[in-house]
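RECORD TYPE: inverse folding
INPUT: structure tokens
STRUCTURE:
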């Protein structure tokens, strides 16, 4: 029976060190970590690896429930997948486990709180942006991908997948830029 640790934070400028240290202190081995949003399971390759690897009797540990996810349905689906494999989840703070029904109930409530917190964060962000726009100081987010470069590469006959790879972005970003400019994506 393995005690598998999972650490997650939302952005590159955040640190996983505290979570990883706590999971090591609890005897977790291996520990998988990633820097990706907990809003959904999309792009969470380390979590997917744990769910693929976990065996009967294994325990998956997270420091807090919101590290597992910020969507109640996702958290409960993860617990269900662990159940199907005969494994269970332990949250270290506050300490609870899905071995018993009380832990499941508390986890459901914590998942709902994390989801509500995420909604509050988005609402505050929208309010802040609206105020900044009113004052004329909002300039929008910084572009991560040069639209001009995407369009130039497409005109050179480079396909969307090759553009994405060359620019280090997702194909979806390339498709959005091309769609916004009305560029044919099928012709090479």
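DESIGNED SEQUENCE:
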């Amino acid at each position: 029976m393995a005690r598998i640790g999972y650490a997650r934070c939302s952005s590159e400028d955040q640190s996983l060190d505290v979570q990883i240290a706590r999971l090591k202190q609890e005897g977790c081995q291996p520990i998988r970590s990633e820097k990706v949003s907990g809003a959904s399971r999309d792009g969470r390759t380390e979590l997917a690896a744990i769910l693929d690897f976990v065996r009967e009797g294994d325990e998956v540990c997270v420091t807090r429930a919101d590290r597992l996810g910020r969507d109640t349905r996702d958290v409960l689906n993860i617990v269900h997948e662990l159940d199907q494999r005969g494994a269970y989840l332990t949250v270290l703070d506050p300490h609870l486990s899905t071995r018993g029904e009380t832990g499941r109930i508390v986890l459901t409530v914590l998942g709902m709180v994390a989801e509500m917190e995420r909604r509050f964060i988005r609402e505050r962000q929208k309010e802040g942006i609206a105020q900044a726009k009113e004052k004329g100081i909002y300039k929008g987010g910084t572009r991560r991908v040069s639209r001009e470069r995407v369009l130039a590469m497409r005109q050179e006959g480079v396909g969307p997948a090759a553009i994405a790879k060359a620019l280090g972005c997702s194909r979806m970003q390339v498709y959005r830029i091309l769609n916004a400019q009305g560029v044919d994506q099928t012709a090479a």
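NOTES: The CA atoms of residues 17 and 181 lie 43 Å apart.
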